[in-house]
């Protein structure tokens, strides 16, 4: 039972909550203990929020998951985790996360509540509408970044939000492209919205958003805003890591079939993980030690 509970919470997906840390890093507050603690609390809260959403999604999708070649092994779909237990866990995780969020700050609490509310509408209605579903996935990432900003608190950077929006849209369309390719003729049975997507259109969107993400990040590193805040233009040296990471994700989304989603594949991909680590090391070195 315990292993089924942990598996359904999907702790490996908590990596998405690294977006909460973005405002802390780019506000150059890593050396501020208070900001570090508040950001850590915000990350933990989003982890609980995410798990509550995963429990709820698996409850809603359990019939479709049973028709999927790999998702049928999820604890709720397979019967390893009873529906009543999963429903109770979703409520406990959501209530605990919201209590912690409002304790951290009322504004952060509203962000957390918005995240849960949007997820509920997404699970019940919006995930069945092509392109609207990916727009919702992008908003989930934006709420993470905005939550990280208000938790510290610092004003959210328009550049950071723009890069997040483009990157998250690419991740969302990459997820749909991966699901459509893996599901094949059974795509509509496994996820209704997949029947409304065309593989060729998704390929164009992936490449276009990948280019737009890279160029927007490049513009950010060269902007007067970045030079004024960071007192250096060396952040441009991190652009190659971003460009490679974007390309690698597009390749994974269109080529790999070793996991339920490209996110899972990324976590197993050594070149992508190495690029992520190098980007973080170089970015922190430039932002905190270059001056």
Provide the descriptors you would attach to this structure in a database record.
Tetracycline Repressor, domain 2; mainly alpha; 73% helix; 291 residues; 2 domains
In short:
The protein is mainly α and 291 residues long. It has helices spanning 2-9, 22-26, 33-60, 62-65, 75-78, 83-104, 106-124, 132-151, 158-183, 187-190, 199-222, 224-230, 239-255, 262-266, 270-289. The model has no long low-confidence stretch (mean pLDDT 88).
Secondary structure: helix percent = over 70%
Determine the mean pLDDT.
88
Shape: globular
| Secondary-structure arrangement, i.e. CATH architecture of the largest domain | Orthogonal Bundle
Question: What oligomerization state is this entry in?
Answer: single chain
User: How much is the radius of gyration in Å?
Assistant: 19 Å
> CATH topology of the largest domain, which one?
Tetracycline Repressor, domain 2
CATH top level of the largest domain is Mainly Alpha
Span of the ends, CA to CA: 53 Å
Total separate domains: 2
CATH superfamily of the largest domain: UbiA prenyltransferase
Low-confidence stretches: none
Number of strands: 0
Structural class by secondary-structure content: mainly alpha
Query: How would you spell out the order of helices and strands?
Result: HHHHHHHHHHHHHHH
Number of helices: 15
The proportion of strand residues reads under 5%
**Biggest sheet descriptor:** none
């Amino acid at each position: 039972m315990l292993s089924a509970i942990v598996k359904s919470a999907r702790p490996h997906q908590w990596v998405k909550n690294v977006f909460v840390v973005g405002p802390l890093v780019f506000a150059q507050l890593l050396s501020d203990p208070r900001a570090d603690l508040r950001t850590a609390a915000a990350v933990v809260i989003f982890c609980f929020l995410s798990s509550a959403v995963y429990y709820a999604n698996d409850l809603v999708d359990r019939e479709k998951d049973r028709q999927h070649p790999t998702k049928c092994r999820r604890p709720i779909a397979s019967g390893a985790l009873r529906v009543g237990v999963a429903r109770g866990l979703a409520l406990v995780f959501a209530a605990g996360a919201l209590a912690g969020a409002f304790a951290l700050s009322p504004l952060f609490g509203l962000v957390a509540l918005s995240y849960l509310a949007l997820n509920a509408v997404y699970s019940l209605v919006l995930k069945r509408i092509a392109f609207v579903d990916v727009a919702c996935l992008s908003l989930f990432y934006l709420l993470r970044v905005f939550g990280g900003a208000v938790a510290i608190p610092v004003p959210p950077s328009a550049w950071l939000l723009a890069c997040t929006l483009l990157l998250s849209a690419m991740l969302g369309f990459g997820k749909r492209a991966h699901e459509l390719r893996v599901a094949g003729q059974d795509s509509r049975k496994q996820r209704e919205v997949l029947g409304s997507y065309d593989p060729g259109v998704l390929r164009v969107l992936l490449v276009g958003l990948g280019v737009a993400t890279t160029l927007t990040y490049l513009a950010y590193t060269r902007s007067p805003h970045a030079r004024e805040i960071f007192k250096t233009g060396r952040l441009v040296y991190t652009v190659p890591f971003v460009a490679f990471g974007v390309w690698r994700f597009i390749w994974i989304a269109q080529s790999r079939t070793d996991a339920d989603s490209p996110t899972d594949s990324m976590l197993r991909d050594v070149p992508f993980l190495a690029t992520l680590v190098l980007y973080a090391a170089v970015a922190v070195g430039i932002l905190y030690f270059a001056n």
